[in-house]
Write a structure and sequence with these properties.
Structural class: mainly alpha
Largest sheet: 2 strands, antiparallel
Shape: elongated
Strand order of the largest sheet: 1-2
Strand content: 5-15%
Order of helices and strands: HEEHEEHHH
Radius of gyration: 28 Å
Length: 118
């Protein structure tokens, strides 16, 4: 009986050791892959995995920069890039609390979608 129990404990110890070794190998591979991953940095600090996404973002960033500028400027126009200032305010801070508000600005949403998807 003692020999059987010793053999069982030996097999269990070996299985645990193999499991830990496999886990360490996978962790090492994951960390190595993460370290060697090339990333692309936009001028505002956003990080992208490939250069094409970075290029699209940079182009959109330049085109839409006025949308994100401070609206505390006195005498700022009512239209910014063709969007109502009230739409931009709701989009950036207030939100759209109900369907009526969404429907009211549906053309603005369409224009924004067209701008982003060009």
């Amino acid at each position: 009986m003692g020999v059987i129990l010793t053999n069982f404990m030996d097999i269990t110890l070996i299985a645990i050791a193999i499991f830990i070794l496999v886990a360490i190998v996978f962790l090492g591979l994951y960390l190595f892959k993460s370290i060697n991953k090339k990333s692309f940095l936009a001028e505002d600090g956003s990080v992208f995995d490939n250069e094409s996404d970075l290029d699209v973002y940079q182009k959109l960033y330049e085109e839409t920069k006025p949308l994100f500028s401070s609206d505390s400027e006195k005498g700022s126009p009512q239209l910014i890039l063709g969007f109502d200032k009230s739409f931009i305010t709701k989009l950036s801070s207030e939100g759209f609390p109900d369907l009526k508000t969404l429907v009211k600005y549906r053309k603005q949403f369409k224009s924004l979608s067209d701008l982003i998807n060009t």
